[in-house]
Amino acid sequence: MTSPARPVLLTGASGALGRQIARGLGAKGWSLRLTDIAPFPDPLPAGARFEAADLNDGVAILRLAEGCGTILHFGGISIDRPFEEVFGPNLRGLYHIYEAARRERARVVFASSNHSIGFHERSERLDDDCAFEPDCYYGLSKAYGELMGRLYWHKHGVESVLVRIGSCFPEPVDARMLATWLSYADLVRLMERAVLAERTDLAVIWGASNNARSFWGRDARARLGWQPEDSADVYAAQLAGKLSGDPVCERYQGGAYAANGYSRREG
């Protein structure tokens, strides 16, 4: 069984996706350091230890990252919230992550989001070099995070895998997710390859399963050796007509996040 040579730090470990990653990588016998502002709700995997920390605490993040070869950064605000709530953990906290990675010569796997490009229309098929079009302050923070990754790659040689996660749930629940769904199993396999790949440089990955209706095309997944194995297509018959009824939501790739608080006058 292949394991990384150095421990892996996982932030946001107590969240829905963090728990899946901790369970999946822990089952492979990996040495994991788990952290979150909230307690870890599950039994700790063998080879894992948990320590509560706030992403705003740069000293704590530096200490947790000491000796780690990869930081899987899933911490921070993960939903559409006001700017003041997003600012600390998602902007300042990300700086602390990248400073820790620079010091440890560690790779960062950043949980970015489709909401960094959410105001692209659904009729578009996007490649990894498309323009940022954030649809909310949360999405804006993810665009900032990807730019931080670019800065640290060009200035310091810190490798980053920037994963624009679509909709990662046990199964898709509406028509939009037929395009954006990422299965838990595909997520864990992606994290494994993002850590074990010999070299990633600066890699942008569309975090979605093998969905025929996907909005997204080219990315750097071949560099990691990752291909999704699951697909939302098997849910198409039951979900194809499950629409929101909101024209803004249905127009843009970001869906409800693009529609939240939308006050633009058309025309």
Defining key terms:
globular; 36% helix; single chain; Rossmann fold; 267 residues; alpha/beta
Task: Characterise this structure.
Helix 1 (16-26) packs across helix 6, helix 2 runs parallel beside helix 3 (83-104) and helix 3 (83-104) packs parallel to helix 4 (137-156). By secondary structure, the chain is of the alpha/beta class. It is globular, with a radius of gyration of 18 Å. It has a single domain (8-259), classed as 3-Layer(aba) Sandwich (Rossmann fold), CATH 3.40.50.720. It is built from ten helices and nine strands.
CATH class annotation? Alpha Beta
**Order of adjacent strands in the largest pleated sheet:** 3-2-1-4-5-6-9
Gyration radius, rounded: 18 Å
Q: How many H/I helices?
A: 10
CATH superfamily: NAD(P)-binding Rossmann-like Domain
Percentage beta strand: 15-25%
Indicate the CATH architecture.
Answer: 3-Layer(aba) Sandwich
Distance between the termini: 58 Å
- Any idea what the shape is? globular
Let me know the number of strands. Answer: 9
Explain the layout of strands and helices.
Layout: E1 8-11, H1 16-26, E2 32-36, E3 48-52, H2 58-65, E4 70-73, H3 83-104, E5 107-113, H4 137-156, E6 160-165, E7 167-168, H5 177-180, E8 181-182, H6 184-196, E9 202-207, H7 221-224, H8 236-239, H9 247-251, H10 256-259
Parallel strand pairs: 1-2, 1-4, 2-3, 4-5, 5-6, 6-9, 7-8
Write a concise synopsis of the structure shown.
By secondary structure, this protein is α/β, with parallel strands linked by helices. It has helices at 16-26, 58-65, 83-104, 137-156, 177-180, 184-196, 221-224, 236-239, 247-251, 256-259; strands spanning 8-11, 32-36, 48-52, 70-73, 107-113, 160-165, 167-168, 181-182, 202-207.
